[in-house]
Amino acid sequence: MHEEALLVARLFLGVPFIIWGVMKLRGGEAKLVPVLAGLGLPDAKFLAYLVGFCELVGGIAVVLGYPVRIVGVLLGLWCLVTGYAAHKSDTNQLLAHVAMAGGFFLLAVVGAGTLALFGGAPTGVFAHLQ
Q1: What DSSP line would sit under 28-60, residue for residue?
Q2: What is the mean pLDDT of residues 9-29?
Q3: Would you give the DSSP letter of residue 115?
Q4: CA 60 centroid distance within chain
Q5: d(CA 90, CA 43)
Q6: Considering only Cβ atoms within 10 Å of each terminal Cβ, which end of the chain, N or C, has fewer?
Q7: How far apart, in Å, are the Cα atoms of 5 and each of 8, 22, 56, 106, 129?
Q8: Residue extents of the structural domains in the chain
């Protein structure tokens, strides 16, 4: 039951990031560009596509369960930074980002489980990414 629960948790955490990434890469970046420009960031359109790409790749990595420890930490930090930068005035959104960050950090600690790519224990070159 433990392994199935980890898989379900990875799906709950990863699938939204895949969806958000695809949406940004398919034209949804238009809503993000003004936000990024408002933060004073240069080349907001490029950054919006980069955000979409990172969300897509991160979500896929979480769903596949590899390299979940690294991606879990990165997406946890991502949630905290975006929660603070974009939603600090909306307590509900900020807390949602903090909750997601907690899930990613927990996933980074416990790992992907055996129902993951490489069975949770990669070998060779891939083992160095864990």
Answers
A1: IHHHHHHHHHHTT-SSHHHHHHHHHHHHHHHHH
A2: 94
A3: S
A4: 9
A5: 26
A6: N
A7: 5, 26, 22, 13, 24
A8: 2-117
